[in-house]
């Protein structure tokens, strides 16, 4: 930056553009991270739901089989 | 990452970029509105805090910025008071009242009243002070601007707009204050208590309290105060005219984005005109004549928007301000005065257009979003692309805003134009106000239109929000480039001209604009720019390279630039020193264009906020105004009157397939409202109320949805199962049995994380739960129906179980359902008990109905009901009263299937036995047969035994086979005479026959069930055969010179090879583990050997019955001659011969035949007993009837013996003889199976010829 030719009052403005661009980059990145977190959230919920479903299924089966087996013992 | 490690910015950014590469699959179709767990919004609006940094801007504008910043703070504060007023709930109603002056706890009540109300009263007090402060500030500003010296100065558009916003605020606060009676009531309650307790000690407090009382009690206090204060300012009307005109101009040129801004413009126009209209002084009609304002245009706008939404259900009717003006002249307001309905009430008219726009925009967006998502960019986007994306973003925001406006405007109009029982027949006479404004106020089409538009808004919002990162990047880059191109390149021309013409004023402004926002390449201004000294560019051009950055101007920067440019081109009347004329027309046009476009930059740079403001539909739920109107009768309205639920429920009720996928959008309105309650209203109780309603609605929603999904699939399954020819024949007879209209429930069923009030809901799971229960109930209903009827119902039961199985299969594709067989077992109460309800009922019916009441006929192989029953009618449970979708699906299907199955209700035959086999299984059949055997045993040792004993006593001691000489009439006569006592035995033809029939029926049942079971088993085996390497032998045609057997072997080998992949054992051995292979082998063996040893149920049954016949009664005394009894009647077969004689005698015309009453079960019982007692041969040889037949064969006589037709008797005997023979052969087939192999020849005991005693001794 050739500061000699730059009028003094211009320098902060010029610097402001650079600073704000920097802030935008950071903001943009935070935005990306939030976007990621949000999609991670939905994705996890979807997978957890599937897992939950499988567990429920197993649980019910065990329950059913238990009920069947108990019959065998009591007779 | 180890702590202490330094991460560079580049590294950090790379890490963020890498996040994009992580796959985050989500399988669910997107039919939901935008719902973010984390909502990130960066707000860079400084409210002019950084104005001093822009030293190069003109002092005048920085000063204006300062004032604006102050006014903005006032606006914010005003907003808070507006919220306070709107959400005010009456407290005093809940506080106990002091009833009389003698009440002992009266002081305590007053103290508590003051304590409770104090914080609220403080707020009201602040509100009063705020009114004064705001009005003063506003009037000061107006006074300053209307000062004679200042009047001609340029006032920026942004500034006038801020004044407009203040006017709007006054109008809103005034309306809210008028509306809330509860505020006044609360305050008077407080004041009463405070005065009693003498809380307000000092003079000032008393005064303030008095003032507040007046302030609250006086209607239109704010606007009247404002008006009277303005009236004292010279020339205020011109300034207000400017404000009104700028609002008009912005409204006409669509210079607004968010719905609230549009509504603000309209309110400012109306309220502004009201302020300018004085009894003595300014008069808007005169101003109109002077063309200072244009009433004709405003007239149209006010008609377009008769009702402007404020908060929730609060509206402002702008035209009312005009009407209340002192100089009101209706003739100047033709549109507003006309009785035509306002266009805002008509959403349906513009629906087609909305759809087209939506489709068009979605396609454009899809193109961009696909490109952004799928392609990796090598180079950054070009300026052109950035511009396109920016325009696309703006277009989207404006569309969203437009649709939101239309929804909200329709809603407002409807609220203020409630229906009544005359207009809407469905509206009851007693419907309350809010109900008439919401529930009954929309036609079906309007509700659908609302749902559709809301769905478009929410759907598009989601899509645009997903594109936010792309949009923001493009927007910032585009705005930066646009701005820098403008200031670095374009502005050189006007600058050169101004310099040349030595117009310092313009030059200073342009330089100031340039310096405020220029961002030179590498921070260096180009040296020796000829434009700066008014000279021409060199012939090869003066090249300036504009840098690229990913950042827009700051809010203050943008404001300053726009305002200064505006001052250059301003042409408003009253401004004298217009610089516009000094400038080149071309330049002015470009600057104007830039000024117009840059208006939206602020919105675009705050894309996220704009997007949310444009889609805000939260106010559809709020109803504080109507609640206030009920005067405390209602704490809250029921969900049936709540817009979000009305819309959701409408979809559920109509089941419109095209709307079904929209169903989550109206529910999302609750999210909006809850968000608004928390973030804007900041009222816990409102959130709680929303939440309570959501809890209620969501339960209803899941219930209704699951129920109709279940009904839909049941209907589908029922339709699939219905016989096609039956359907076709019904069709030709004019009865249409329709399939269900295809509906898109699948999409809904795939929803695993629906966001509602911050909770994530697995819709699939909830529906699964419900459907599981419904299926369970459905199976239960099927079994209960069976239990309520006779055994023929077993066919319908199987059909019902099948339809449920099919429903289960259809839904199992989308939902997690319990195993069907497990469910069936549960419904059948068969999980832990060895036999279920079906088995029990089958047995019950067999015992109670089948054995006593059915008659077998071998010709049809069916049982039919007896003509005359000897048993009491069975009392069965009542059939369950379940709704149609728990049975076959629809009323019509129920009717069809009932008709079809009624064909099976008149008899019991092969289909029933097959069904019994399938439903009961081995275990069930074993139980039933075991129990039947017990019944038979009880007969044989009980009733039957007793009857036999009795009858034996009635039997003659001897009964001979008469010689042929007597002739058949003689023989008949003889038997009749001999058996007279027997024949006359009273219970013979009823109870005795009935008992034997029951035994016969039981035996027949066992026989037929085994036959059916065998058929089922063969089916099973045939189905299993291909997997067990059992291939049918192909036919090899005989040919000369060929070995047929060798060829057959070869073909078989080929076939074996071909189907090798089907061999289960082989495949499992190859692919599974050891245990699996073992199981497969065992299974295979079990299947293979199932029928091998040829065990027969029936044989065992007979053997068991044989074992019951131990009593000597059955066998009689051993023969005296040591060989056999011939004439003596002490064996069972003799008894049976007598019985047979009885039923062979023909009957009268009006009597029922034995066949009709008892069927062949009777014969079977006799034959079985005879066979099992080993008396078959003796029976055949010595039977009375057979003898009669033989004699008749010889003499062929047809006489009438004592009223009995001999011929008929003989015919009957012949018939029964054939029948008996058949039965004996069947029995022998079963009983002799084992013997035939072991003993091929029958053992005959040979007796030597009888020798005379005299001879014997001689030898």
UniProtKB/TrEMBL annotation, chain A:
Q: Where located?
A: Cytoplasm, Cytoskeleton
Decide whether keyword Cytoplasm is in the record.
yes
Q: Name one GO molecular function term.
A: protein-containing complex binding
Gene3D superfamilies linked? 1.20.5.110
Which GO annotations describe the biological process of this protein?
A: actin filament organization; cell motility; regulation of actin polymerization or depolymerization
Q: Mainly resides where?
A: cytoplasm
One GO location term (cellular component): cytoskeleton
Q: Which InterPro entries match?
A: BRICK1 (IPR033378)
Q: Which UniProt keywords apply?
A: Coiled coil, Cytoplasm, Cytoskeleton
User: Into which family does the record put it?
Assistant: Belongs to the BRK1 family.
Question: What is this protein's record name?
Answer: Protein brick1
Q: In which organism is this protein found?
A: Plakobranchus ocellatus
Automatic annotation (TrEMBL), chain B:
For this protein, the record's InterPro entries field holds: CYRIA/CYRIB_Rac1-bd (IPR009828), Cytoplasmic_FMR1-int (IPR008081)
**Cytoplasm in keyword set:** yes
Question: Ranges for the CYRIA/CYRIB Rac1 binding domain?
Answer: 67-271
Q: Which GO terms describe its biological process?
A: regulation of actin filament polymerization
Q: Give me the segments passing through the membrane.
A: none
Q: Name one GO cellular component term.
A: cytoplasm
GO terms, molecular function: small GTPase binding
Question: Which terms are listed as keywords in the entry?
Answer: Cytoplasm
Record has Aminoacyl-tRNA synthetase as a keyword: no
The UniProt similarity line reads: Belongs to the CYFIP family.
Q: Please identify the protein, giving its name as recorded.
A: Cytoplasmic FMR1-interacting protein
Q: Which organism is it from?
A: Plakobranchus ocellatus
Task: Please spell out the taxonomic lineage of the organism that makes this protein.
Answer: Eukaryota, Metazoa, Spiralia, Lophotrochozoa, Mollusca
